[in-house]
Amino acid sequence: MAKYKIAVLSGDGTGPEVIAEALKVLKAVERKYDIEFEFNEALIGGCAYDKFGTPLPDSTLELAKNSDAVMLGAVGDWKYDTLPPEVRPERALLGIRKGLNLFANLRPAIVFEELVSSSPLKAENVAGVNIMIIRELTGDVYFGTPKGIETQNGKRIGFNNMIYNEDEIRRIAHVAFKTAMQRGKKLCSVDKANVLDVSRLWREIMIEVSKEYPEVELSHMYVDNAAMQIIRAPKQFDTIATGNIFGDILSDEASMLSGSLGLLPSASLGDDGKVGLYEPIHGSAPDLKGKDIANPIATILSAAMMMKYSFKNDDAYNLIEKAIKNVLKQGYRTQDIMSEGKTLVGTSKMGDLIVEEILKQ
Ligand code: IPM
Ligand code: MG
User: Fold this and answer.
1) Residue 171 pLDDT more than 90?
2) Residue 91: enclosing H or E segment and its boundaries?
3) 138 C-alpha vs ligand 1 centroid, how far in Å?
4) Is 0.85 surpassed by the pTM of this model?
5) Peptide bond into 57 cis (omega under 30)
6) What is the pLDDT of residue 242?
7) Which of 222, 235, 252, 289 is catalytic?
8) Is 224 a catalytic residue?
């Protein structure tokens, strides 16, 4: 029997509530296949700061490194907004991504047929949308140096450095082309090469790597145009490759195609065979904490991505996805995707319904 060690980092706000539902689902998956999970919990984010004075304790990073995969909830709360930047909860996310060398962030934006009406956009434009955004995750202006706030000639200046070296671009390009090969063989690389030098290099390397994937049709788009096209005609996209900051922004935007941030999962991957990290793309939503109203679907889908990308079990991925679709088909909705005539359920009930569906299959 295959045994996997999973680090469970629930974090802050609604993180623990949505993670609890993902664990229920994984336990159901365990019953369906010849696998066993060992779940080990550790603190990350504000709760870790409260206990250890740092949002990413060494012990948490060590646990993650010694696991087969990491399930992460979300970090952050308003009460930490006044902390110095080095110990803010968000730093833990950046730290764990860098610490595990998770340079490739896969953010699928899929519009479920059952939820077409929850999208603020016209149904005919969003029905059938299935975009995979590949966001570079350990470089760019997020990590570039020099950075800081300094006083020069009596004036304060703030600065960050948007920087990529060619190897960083090349390795994310390979992930993007390989992903596109398994999908619609269409890759759109998003940059700002009309203004930024770093983007000119990005584009050059994308073109160079494309020679190794002759079957993939590569196109380029400036990020401002891409932001517009994602709303105007999202179905033109299959796979998108972009840098860290552009990917951050475009993935939040793309989530609205499906109507709720509460639906979109993500996988963060490093070199082949190394530990992967799975988390919803939404934040900790501290205003919803403890109310049993957060949507657990993004986290449950993240667990499904873990089955697919870390444990190469596409069957389990499909099983979980199908269970979610069935529950939506039956009319159950959390508050964020609620509409007239549907049945409102809480976080935990939504998890239970999905588990029931899994066990029925
Ligand atoms: C995300 C988040 C993070 C990011 C923040 C919380 C550091 O917005 O995962 O998209 O900017 O990467
Ligand atoms: Mg973001």
Assistant:
1) yes
2) helix 89-99
3) 12
4) yes
5) no
6) 98
7) 252
8) yes
**From atom 11 of ligand 1, which residue's Cα is the shortest distance away?**
248
Query: Is 80 one of the annotated active-site residues of the chain?
Result: no
| H-assigned helices in 256-338 | 297-309, 314-329
pLDDT, tens only, 9-68: 999 999 999 999 999 999 999 999 989 999 999 999 999 999 999 999 999 999 999 999
Atom of ligand 1 nearest to the CA of 105: 9
Q: Ligand 1 pocket, 93 CB below 6 A?
A: yes
Q: Which atom of ligand 1 is nearest to the CA of 252?
A: 10
Query: What is the distance in A from the centroid of ligand 1 to the CA of 28?
Result: 30
Cβ(179)–Cβ(134) under 8 Å? yes
Which of the four pLDDT bands, split at 50, 70 and 90, describes residue 119?
confident
Residue at 173: amino acid letter: A
Structure-token pair, residue 360: 């029925």
Q: In the structure encoding, which two tokens stand for residue 145, read together?
A: 């140096």
Given the structure tokens 């999208």, which residue do they identify?
A: 119
Q: Please give all residues whose CB falls under 5 A of ion ligand 2, grouped by chain where several chains appear.
A: 248
Tell me the Ramachandran region of residue 276: left when phi exceeds 0, alpha when psi lies from -120 to 50, beta otherwise: beta
